[in-house]
Amino acid sequence: MTEADRIFSRFPAYIKEYIYAHNWTELRDIQLSAAHVILETDSDLLLSSSTASGKTEAAFFPILTELSEKPPKAPSVSVLYIAPLKSLINDQFLRMEEVLEASGVPLTRWHGDVSATRKSELLKNPSGILQITPESLESMLMNRSNDLSRLFGDLRYVVIDEIHALIGSDRGAQVLCQMERLARAIGRHPRRIGLSATIGDLSLAAAWLSAGDERECVAPPPPRRPLRWILGMEHFYIQDARESQASLVTSATEEEGGRARLDPGYEYLYDAVAGRKALVFSNSREETEYVTATLRQIAKARREDDIFLIHHGNLSASLREDAEEKMKDETVTRAVTCATVTMELGIDIGKLERVAQMGSPTTVSGFLQRLGRSGRRGSPPEMVMVYREEMPLPNAPLPEIIPWELLRGIAIVDLYATERFIEPPRVKRMPLSLAFQQTLSILASSGELSPRALADRVLSLPPLAALPKETYRELLVSMVNNDYLEMTETRGLIVGLAGERLTNSFKFYAVFKDSEDYTVRRDSEEIGTITTPPPVGDRFALAGRVWEVTETDLSRKLIFVKAVEGKMEISWPGDSGEIHTKLLLKMREILAGEKVYPFLGENAAARLAHARRVAKIAHMDTRLVVPLGGQSYVLFPWLGTRSFRTARRLLQKYAGELGLSDIESVGCCYITFKAKGDGTTLPERIRGILSRDGLDTATLVFDGECPVFDKYDDFIPPELLREAYAVDRLRADEVIARFDGKENS
Length: 745
Prior knowledge:
Layout: H1 3-10, H2 13-21, H3 29-40, E1 44-48, H4 55-69, E2 79-82, H5 86-100, E3 107-110, H6 116-124, E4 129-132, H7 134-143, H8 148-151, E5 157-161, H9 170-186, E6 191-196, H10 202-209, E7 217-218, E8 230-238, E9 251-256, E10 259-261, H11 264-273, E11 277-281, H12 285-301, E12 308-311, H13 317-328, E13 335-339, E14 354-358, H14 364-371, E15 382-390, H15 398-401, H16 404-419, H17 432-446, H18 451-459, H19 469-481, E16 485-487, E17 493-495, H20 497-503, E18 518-522, E19 525-530, E20 539-542, E21 545-553, E22 558-564, H21 581-592, H22 602-617, E23 625-629, E24 632-635, H23 641-653, H24 655-658, E25 660-666, E26 670-675, H25 682-693, H26 718-728, H27 733-738
Parallel strand pairs: 1-6, 1-7, 2-4, 2-5, 3-4, 5-6, 8-15, 11-13, 11-14, 12-13, 14-15, 18-22
Antiparallel strand pairs: 9-10, 16-17, 18-19, 20-21, 21-22, 23-24, 24-26, 25-26
């Protein structure tokens, strides 16, 4: 009997029937590996494999097999499934319902959109599989602490989906805290199973997944298959340099030879996706709204059907679900959804013909996630990347002539194609915002605790274990002084009045920053939310359309609107995310090289060739510092986000000694400055300073700074925030290596 036959023979009849019904001829390698680990070991499991490779079935087939062989002896949730998005839970609910239909294993969703009736049924009779978001799980741990042992007494598995979206974030650290708190409540650690399509360093991710449960975590390497992509990149100059965010379509109503004069970059995008099922990704809600409205304007100008949908976190659930349903519906052959990261994760949208990307993703991981949304059911994934850029002025300085975003896109593709590189996970060492939130959550659930007992509970949570005891003591003192905690007559700690105001809000359960959103309605229809309420008569964009404010009810945070034609304003800032140093170095290599990239369109290839000529003339391949004329210079550090930030602060700290002024930076690409004397000697002078003083990142955080980034940072003493900033947002080793003299300066 082969390994596959042996595994298959253990599956219960309903799983075998499911496999037969879907015409599967064999189990995939990932499914065999998962079944072996789950059924024949006591290890945790990390499954990393491409989108649509069958990870969900790989995990749940053996889990359900084990439940059928060893049924629960008492009422209890057997499997806890944690996912970062409600939409992902809803999608997996529908997929798993089909598998579970004949199993007798109940499946329950638990998040903000699920009715109280469904939740109360689980509370009365806990059983089967519970699907939940981190925020809902936090609420359960806080408010139902006395029920945990009854609800989860025989919990066997915790399945965490899309863990790449959690590792390195406060939200992921919160999930680790939750698993540890749940384990304490039930007296043991259930096995953990992580699912992801893109993991950079499997060993680091496996260590993260099993943190605190003392089990080995097995991470089978994903199969290395030849790359099969249909990929294209094209570049366009914006025709009018004065073009604003209010008017991308330059003249959608003017007819010229029977055709409206439209923006060529967006026409190219339109032609790439119209008439098929496709996703168009942008890197922010702002751009997504902008892209959707523009594509709709082009359709109107061409007198073609409006098949464009939109999907992002500020839309109403009904609008998001409408987009998801249309994309899943196989009878709908033409539908284009413009989306942010909300469509990047593993929602099954069936057969998707093509993915498009406006600009470049920030990371290799993001690129692979987006690319993997297409190409299901045997066809290769297809992606079109469109870059738009204002024409550089004739007298533009060197750094403004380089197409940085196009370079980043090429680098992302080449880095994965040649090295299979994916960014490794990064874990914070001083997550103070999380420590604040978990302190209140634990006290709210447990009642009074001594300072020592509280510290023991909090600092034994895996993500907080590296937090120095003295640092945590300072945090507790601050929380008491500001009434977030209260010390009782018996010297115990309870939640204070200010802490109660925080914990009594449903927003407390989330560790990511939320905004004071205002709900937008057209009559009784909810459109979505915006962060800033416009006055009556003003216009703004939401759901890919333009709205005029007709009435506001600020006390209830309601904005009433009517649909209008016209210009649009945007309500949200974008987020560039963190870029890895390896990506910057690949960009440098591309700029200095001669490699031909067949996926570049004619315009993009010409733009790269021009940038290469400019870079060669300026000796960017051999110099870190290039003169710009007069006293002006530009430094190209070729460093990722944290290291670049460190280099910039280093220049600011020693500006007087180095004779520098007017230090400015753009992204992670370059730093401009003015220098007294010869600025090209800056690398040698920095090297001398580093040899003399070393590089302690703590010295680069300036007195009086209060670096607030995370949700509860406003409640943290500034001196602790400065310490955390130096530890988690700066990086010295790469800066030292860049200026150590081994590279040409």
